[in-house]
Amino acid sequence: MLLSLDLSDPRPLHEQVAGAIRRSIAQGAYAPGDRLPSARDLADALGINANTVLRALRDLRDEGLLEFRRGRGVSVHRLPDTKSVLESLARELLEEAERRGYGKDEVIEILKELP
Fold first, then answer.
1. Which of 3, 17, 109, 113 is most buried, by the most CB atoms less than 10 A from its CB?
2. Contact 99, 92 (CB under 8 A)
3. pTM exceeding 0.85
4. pLDDT at residue 1 above 70?
5. Residue 41: helix, strand or coil by DSSP?
6. Which residues form the HTH gntR-type domain (predicted)?
7. What DSSP string runs through the chain?
8. Using one digit for the tens of pLDDT, what is the confidence trace for 48-107?
C-alpha cells in the first residue's frame, strides 16, 4: 500500500491516513477480504506514530469499511460507496483551494469551465 501524507495539510494526520486508505481501497488496491498491512508497518512507512494509524483504522472500522479480527489483523470489509469517496476528494480540493486563496464559489466556476 503506497500512502503519502502532506505535512503542510492542516487536517489531523489520522484523517489524512483514513482518507488515503479509503482512496486506496476505492481505487482497487484492496478488495473485500484482503488484509491490510499492520498499523506498525503503515506507521513506519509513513514516519508517524502507530497510534495515529490505529485511530484512522478505527475510524474506517466505524464507517464499516474495515473489519478487525483477533489474531488475523485488519481486513477490508466492504468497498466505500463512490459518493463518500467523491465527497472526501471534494473536501480536499476545497481545503487546497482555500490555502491558495480561492473560495468555494470560485472553485465551482473553475469546475464549470472544465471540458
1. 17
2. no
3. no
4. no
5. helix
6. 11-79
7. ------TT--S-HHHHHHHHHHHHHHTTSS-TTPBPPPHHHHHHHHTS-HHHHHHHHHHHHHTTSEEEETTTEEEE-SPPPHHHHHHHHHHHHHHHHHHTT--HHHHHHHHHH--
8. 999 999 999 999 999 899 999 888 899 999 887 778 778 878 888 898 899 899 999 999
Closest alpha carbon to 63 in 80, 44, 87: 80
- CATH architecture of the domain 1-80 equals Orthogonal Bundle (1.10)
pLDDT of residue 2: 66
Contacts for 4 with CB less than 8 Å, ≥ 6 apart: 20, 46
Task: Please give the angle made by the CA atoms of 39, 41 and 42, to the nearest 5 degrees.
Answer: 65
Domain-wise residue ranges, the chain: 1-80, 81-115
Rounded mean pLDDT, 34-47: 93
C-alpha cell at 115: 471540458
